[in-house]
Design brief:
This protein is α/β, with parallel strands linked by helices. The chain is built from 15 helices and 14 strands. The chain is 39% helix and 12% strand. The structure holds nicotinamide-adenine-dinucleotide (NAD). The site of nicotinamide-adenine-dinucleotide has 27 residues, from α4.
Amino acid sequence: MKSDKKPDVCVVGLGYIGLPTAAIVARSGCRVQGVDVTQGVVDTINRGEIHIEEVDLDGLVHAVVKRGLLSASLTVAAADVFVIAVPTPFGPNHEPDISYVLSAARSVAPVLKPGDVVILESTSPVGTTEQIRDLIAEARPDLRVPGLTRETPDVSIAYCPERVLPGRILHELTENDRSIGGITPRCARKALAFYKLFVRGTCVATDARSAEMTKLVENAYRDVNIAFANELSIISDKMGLDVWEVIRLANRHPRVNILSPGPGVGGHCIAVDPWFIVASAPQESPLIRTARGVNDGKIHHVIAKADALITAHPDARVACLGLAFKANIDDFRESPARLVAATLARKYGSRISIVEPFAAELPREFSGTGAIPIDLDEALEDCDILVVLVDHDIFKVVPLAERAGKIVYDTRGIWPDQHKAGAADSAAEGLRLVG
Ligand SMILES: NC(=O)c1ccc[n+]([C@@H]2O[C@H](COP(=O)([O-])OP(=O)(O)OC[C@H]3O[C@@H](n4cnc5c(N)ncnc54)[C@H](O)[C@@H]3O)[C@@H](O)[C@H]2O)c1
């Protein structure tokens, strides 16, 4: 990467991470080529449009494509910096699948030239960046690669994970601090110089393995802490306690900060990444593995509780509020809310209605169940039981008067005042079920 001119950049993988990154790098004045294996994605971006939902991304992509700074392609061409942001799912036994990463690295290797920088952004098990290095060394014996030569390497290879929150990606891509791990300190410095072009947060240089582990640890930390809250909710339920009240009071302790329980943990990060640690150190990670089990188990606890409530009220109409894996987004991947609602829909059919303001239509597993999508007003007018599965803002602001007389199972604790409302059926297991 020459220091006197902005580098040409190639971003491989144009999804939730790659496309916003490509657009922001292009906005900083670099010429960016985006690469994806999906023709539809490439065509959409070249029209100046987007194929994913993210706040303000459409306008930015439109602008940088129009200015000729961003274009998309199915094949990798020469550049100065390569950023790999492809999926890293897990396999049937929760083992990390880095085949997309290796395939992306294989597509980059042939076009590398001395001075280039290769950066992996995909969440990856420890050692993946070194595997990329080994792959490049094998594919390009003409290049000196870092860590395998005593001389100055021809290329630099580094790892830099993402920490963005969906819905705030453009903001967080530039404002968040970054851990930038090089195969060697020189690699880290080269990668850091690239991120300085568009990141305002602090960029901290480290080694590749530490940076890989840092990303996994961040999400395992969240998972373990959510598991504690979820376990408390199940214990409190058994003991007839309101977990939200218990947590509210406990958090008044100056050094206690318990997170919020919910119907389980979803999405493609927190519910996935801890397994990458478990796969690397299975004997040494009982806490992280157990947390995964607790959070997955919470989904079944919620299904069982909702099921019992619906069975106890055979004439009641039921609205499930929310399908997304977290509040105020349209991402339904690995969503516990979606699993709970679909399970109830399969069992109770047309008695179940779904309110999801962020979905244009119900996911395919609902077809044939008889469950229908309705809006929030219809749910409040027509349904007797409300099962709160997602804490969307639009649900939070429903006034008590409009929930009065309803039987509520609030898995997110959004309506702490519900106990003040009279339920239509005083024989209900509880006017406001929590836990
Ligand atoms: N989405 C997030 O909020 C988030 C946050 C932090 C980290 N991450 C991590 O970032 C990585 C990417 O996640 P994402 O959400 O952007 O995934 P995504 O599924 O939205 O996008 C990945 C894109 O890569 C493309 N692709 C797959 N193989 C390819 C290849 N060999 N060459 C070119 N393109 C290829 C796919 O077609 C897809 O468009 C993952 O490792 C994920 O764990 C995601």
